[in-house]
Amino acid sequence: MSLLEVQELQTFYGKSQALFDVRLTVEEGEVAALMGRNGMGKTTTIRSICNLTPARSGKIVFAGRPTAGLPPHRVARLGIGLVPEGRRCFPNLTVEENLLAAARPGKWDLTQIHRLFPRLAERRSQSARTLSGGEQQMLAIGRALMTNPRLVILDEATEGLAPVIRKDIWAAIRTLKGEGQSILIVDKTLSELLPVADRCTILERGQTVWHGSPETMTPDIQERFLGV
Ligand code: ATP
């Protein structure tokens, strides 16, 4: 059984249809990349998986459990840790308070997060508002991990960040993969994404148009669907 299985997803914003036929799977312990040019439906797919923008039809099964009709906090409690686009933390809480507010029992605790992101240890008593964009992104990832999720979803986690911070975040992603953490990731940096991905799904205009391993993604496919 796959950890996450998404079939024939159709999602609307009001009358406007954003997803027409999205299919993807994430196996336990795997890094799955969700790819496609701007506006093709990656964020909407993630929002549908989390029931933030519920799908109108199709099927989403997480850890054997259909998620239809569950409110977002219940989907999260099934074991999905979302790091949304544009990182959201509580600006007036300290770094440590932000992490502890998300905590659920499991392997990931403050010590483990500090090991993954030493900068968050250095800044533990600062309010989140005073962090750089990259540090806030680390905090957003740390918060998702503190829920001890079975699946972490990263939506453009490295976008718009300084190169040194991007490097740190990719290193953290590789560490997570090495520890067997299941991850669904959207990111535009193919040179970092492809080496870490076990499988790729490409969306075009709200439809899955290709899926396969990164090794089988030819330059032709990249040019056709990703504009590389
Ligand atoms: P990007 O890489 O630019 O974030 P994406 O692949 O994540 O793109 P989505 O953000 O999922 O794409 O957008 C898919 C489609 O849905 C686009 O046509 C977009 O204009 C539309 N859309 C996204 N959010 C909304 C919204 N809140 N209301 C109406 N339409 C939306």
Automatic annotation (TrEMBL):
Protein name: High-affinity branched-chain amino acid transport ATP-binding protein LivF
Keywords: Amino-acid transport, ATP-binding, Nucleotide-binding, Transport
Gene Ontology molecular function terms on file: ATP binding
Organism expressing this protein natively: Nitratireductor thuwali
PROSITE patterns assigned to the protein according to its UniProt record, in alphabetical order: ABC_TRANSPORTER_1, ABC_TRANSPORTER_2
PANTHER family, alphabetized: ABC TRANSPORTER ATP-BINDING PROTEIN, HIGH-AFFINITY BRANCHED-CHAIN AMINO ACID TRANSPORT ATP-BINDING PROTEIN LIVF
Family statement: Belongs to the ABC transporter superfamily.
Entry keyword annotation includes Cell membrane: no
